């Protein structure tokens, strides 16, 4: 156990706990075990990122955490509740914003959509949507349609929709992989702003090792076959983080090199 996890475990219960999770697709001769005995805890208010080799099962893991597909064994707990279906206190942002937004609805209606059936008045839904859009830097875009926005702006709308939910835990699956480098940097910084403003717990799956370090308080590195947790790396880089200054530090370079070594290590 690292100093960071020790500190957390002494002070609070995890917001999200993954306990001995395994996942096998198919059965009989076609069976393929993707995840084997994956365990980790995420603490309230923390941002953690998950990295691992392509095809390691990162999306599979995230879908199990979100209650979107069952694991083969093991369990996920959101607070004290075992996850068996998509929990109300958890929101997910996917990579492909073009498929997650409804093109025939306005931006405002897209953000309000998941709030229906939650016992909120229309005025309250509208207010939450406006506030979430303002938080992602789109305060005056509610009446536009998604196709009138750039890719980066559409992903901001998808993030606003998750924020309007006011979830305890926000899961993000390769959220910035489909946008250009500058927009990606802006959205990484937006993630820091959201964390500060809403105090929510964030778990980000990413291919990008630099991004995993820049965003997170801890990086969960997956490797092996079947995939398990190789190491949980604490990131003690100061906040606020800055794209140029933080990424130029020796500590950042050392963390990036260490994680790259873990990801590229051949399976035992
Ligand atoms: N529904 C499914 N049925 C059978 N096999 C699946 C299913 N979903 C994923 N797989 C397999 O599980 C493995 C892990 O896929 P997954 O998408 O979870 O990995 P990943 O780490 O997110 O990949 P990448 O880094 O390329 O995005 C892959 O070999 C994939 O083909």
From TrEMBL:
Keyword Signal among record annotations: no
Nucleotide-binding in keyword set: yes
InterPro entries on file: AAA+_ATPase, ABC_transporter-like_ATP-bd, ABC_transporter-like_CS, ABC_transporter_ATP-bind, P-loop_NTPase
PROSITE patterns, A to Z: ABC_TRANSPORTER_1, ABC_TRANSPORTER_2
SMART domains linked to this entry: AAA (SM00382)
Keywords attached to this entry: ATP-binding, Nucleotide-binding, Transport
Domain ABC transporter: 16-249
UniProt-recorded Gene Ontology molecular function terms: ATP binding
PANTHER family named among the record's database cross-references: ALIPHATIC SULFONATES IMPORT ATP-BINDING PROTEIN SSUB 2, TAURINE IMPORT ATP-BINDING PROTEIN-RELATED
Protein name as catalogued: ABC transporter ATP-binding protein
Organism the protein comes from: Arthrobacter hankyongi
Lineage of origin: Bacteria, Bacillati, Actinomycetota, Actinomycetes, Micrococcales
């Amino acid at each position: 156990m690292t100093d960071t996890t020790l500190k957390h475990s002494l002070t609070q219960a995890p917001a999200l706990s993954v306990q001995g999770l395994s996942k096998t697709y198919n059965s009989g001769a076609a069976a393929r075990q993707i995840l084997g005995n994956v365990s980790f805890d995420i603490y309230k208010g923390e941002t953690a990122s998950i990295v691992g080799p392509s095809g390691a099962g990162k999306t599979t893991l995230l879908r199990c955490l979100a209650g979107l597909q069952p694991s083969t064994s093991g369990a996920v707990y959101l607070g004290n509740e075992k996850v068996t279906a998509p929990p109300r206190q958890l929101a997910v942002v996917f990579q492909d914003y073009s498929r997650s937004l409804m093109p025939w609805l306005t931006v405002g209606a897209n953000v309000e959509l998941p709030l229906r059936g939650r016992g909120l008045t229309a005025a309250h839904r509208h207010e939450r949507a406006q506030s979430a859009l303002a938080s992602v830097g789109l305060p005056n875009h509610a009446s536009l349609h998604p196709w009138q926005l750039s890719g980066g702006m559409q992903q901001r709308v998808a993030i606003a929709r998750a924020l309007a939910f006011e979830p305890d835990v926000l899961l993000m699956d390769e959220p910035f992989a489909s946008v250009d480098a500058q927009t990606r940097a802006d959205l990484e910084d937006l993630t820091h702003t959201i964390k500060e403003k809403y105090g929510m717990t964030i778990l980000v799956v990413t291919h990008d090792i630099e991004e995993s370090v820049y965003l997170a308080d801890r990086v969960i590195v997956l490797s092996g076959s079947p995939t398990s947790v190789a190491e949980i790396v604490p990131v003690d880089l100061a906040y606020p983080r800055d794209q140029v200054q933080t990424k130029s530090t020796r500590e950042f370079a050392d963390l990036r090199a260490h994680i790259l070594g873990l990801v590229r290590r051949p399976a035992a």
